[in-house]
Design goal:
Blueprint lengths: L1 H29 L1 E5 L19 E5 L13 E5 L7 E8 L4 E3 L7 E3 L4 E5 L9 H4 L2 E2 L3 E10 L5 E2 L16 H7 L1
């Protein structure tokens, strides 16, 4: 009798496992997952305490599936320099925008179609578009929607741009005014 109950439990566990794993993989691949933010490039907004405490963010993969991002969003992208690495930065300009760069080879630049301009909040300590130029929207990996760790920093991430950043001229000006 105990042997039959053990087999039933084992069968139920294995059956549940084979259902749970594909569902979990699908959710992580298509909907959302959590990621640890390392480094200082997004300070002071992310990792304000430096290397002593890393923020953990919820990355919404569903939101970027159609490449819909806005200026001020914090996004995860596949690094243009190292495809094995994902980096997290703030969207400063969208395709068609005209921007003043901080240290790129061209001081002024129009963002090409299908591209974004991304920057870390901690200028000078960030490998971003000022180093490698506009980034293809095809490299988008996720949109950071919430800080979920540490508990004292739980919050929804609001879209914002540093005061001195953003496009000089935007092809999306009317759309952006409606959103804010």
């Amino acid at each position: 009798m105990a042997q039959q109950a053990g087999r039933r439990y084992l069968r139920a566990f294995v059956g549940g496992f084979f259902v749970a794993v594909p569902v979990t993989v699908t959710v992580l691949d298509r909907v959302a997952y959590v990621a640890r933010v390392e480094g200082t490039s997004m300070q002071p907004f992310l990792n304000p305490e430096g290397v002593s405490a890393c923020d953990v963010v919820l990355l919404n993969r569903w939101r970027v599936r159609n490449y819909e991002v806005h200026r001020g969003d914090i996004v995860s992208i596949v690094s243009p320099k190292n495809p094995q690495q994902k980096i997290i930065k703030r969207v400063v300009a969208l395709e068609g925008d005209f921007i003043r760069t901080l240290s790129y080879k061209n001081r002024y630049l129009r963002i090409p179609d299908g591209h974004l301009w991304i920057e870390g909040d901690h200028h000078g300590h960030s490998l971003d578009s000022n180093s490698f130029g506009p980034v293809s929207v095809g490299l988008l990996h996720g949109h950071a929607s919430h800080i979920i760790w540490p508990p004292n920093r739980w919050q929804r991430i609001q879209r914002s741009l540093p005061v001195d950043r953003g496009p000089l001229l935007s092809s999306h000006a009317a759309e952006e005014e409606e959103e804010f």
